[in-house]
Design goal:
The complex is a heterodimer of chains A (115) and B (117).
Chain A lengths: L2 E5 L2 E5 L4 E8 L3 E9 L4 E7 L6 E3 L2 E6 L4 E6 L8 E10 L6 E5 L3 E6 L1
Chain B lengths: L4 E3 L2 E4 L5 E6 L6 E7 L5 E8 L2 E4 L8 E4 L6 E5 L8 E8 L11 E2 L3 E5 L1
Parallel strand pairs in B: 2-11
Antiparallel strand pairs in B: 1-3, 3-8, 4-5, 4-9, 5-6, 7-8, 9-10, 9-11
Classes of the chains: A mainly beta (115), B mainly beta (117).
Chain lengths: 115, 117
């Protein structure tokens, strides 16, 4: 069965710290890996990764994918209280039956940034 | 541009009752997805519409769940009769359709929290 595992489940750090969130997966028909940030309600898109070793960056956030070892990391440097959220990892994979691509989600990492 | 909206934001019903959730996607988005997050577990795919057609409903848990998207605009998800294990947050997302099957960002609604007592 396809699965996506995120670690840690929760993390509490102080402002200014750097954090690394992990996402590993076992998925057939992998297409891409996506990171989302969920604050109050709806998840919002951060990154899409399809190729190994190519770092995606957006401000203080960056992410990289390793398709050989089947994992991705999301780094946040110089964290701020506004970074507090649940960070979700999802893998886009073929559902097989209908040749469509579904998102298979991890459980999320709850990140709390203390002032 | 208005985002994806869902109604209601929270519904509390008793076991055996019927509940209908509504999702209004972003205008022009032909793809519409339903997801569910139960008891703090990971978000699970339920089904995918392209316009009014069900493209993939492999994630629907059982026949108590019925999704429709008449006219290819808004969608409803009906649970009848509701059971305790149906409690959770139901998310809707929409995206554009592009050729070649490339990924288009899914925009999520705020979710409907369903509590079955």
């Amino acid at each position: 069965e396809d699965k996506v595992v995120q670690s840690p489940l929760s993390l509490v750090v102080h402002e200014g710290d750097t954090v690394t969130l992990n996402c590993s997966y076992e998925v057939t028909n992998f297409r891409s890996l996506l990171w989302y940030k969920q604050e109050k309600k709806a998840p919002t898109f951060l990154f899409m990764l399809t190729s190994s070793g190519i770092e995606k960056k957006s401000g203080r956030l960056s992410s990289i994918l390793d398709k050989k070892e089947l994992f991705s990391i999301l780094n946040i440097t110089a964290t701020q209280t506004g970074d507090s959220a649940i960070y979700l990892c999802a893998v886009e994979a073929s559902s097989g039956r209908y040749s469509n691509y579904q998102l298979i989600w991890g459980a999320g990492t709850k990140l709390i940034i203390k002032p | 541009e208005a985002g994806v909206t869902q109604f209601p934001s929270h519904s509390v019903i008793e076991k055996g009752q019927t509940v209908t959730l509504r999702c209004d996607p972003i205008s022009g988005h032909d793809n519409l997805y339903w997801y569910r997050r139960v008891m703090g577990k990971e978000i699970k795919f339920l089904l995918h519409f392209v316009k009014e057609s069900k493209q993939d409903e492999s994630g629907m848990p059982n026949n108590r769940f019925l999704a429709e998207r008449t006219g290819g605009t808004y969608s409803t998800l009906k649970v009848q009769p509701a059971e305790l294990e149906d409690s959770g947050v139901y998310f809707c997302a929409s995206s554009r359709v592009t050729g070649g099957g490339s990924y288009n960002e899914q925009f999520f609604g705020p979710g409907t929290r369903l509590t079955v007592l």
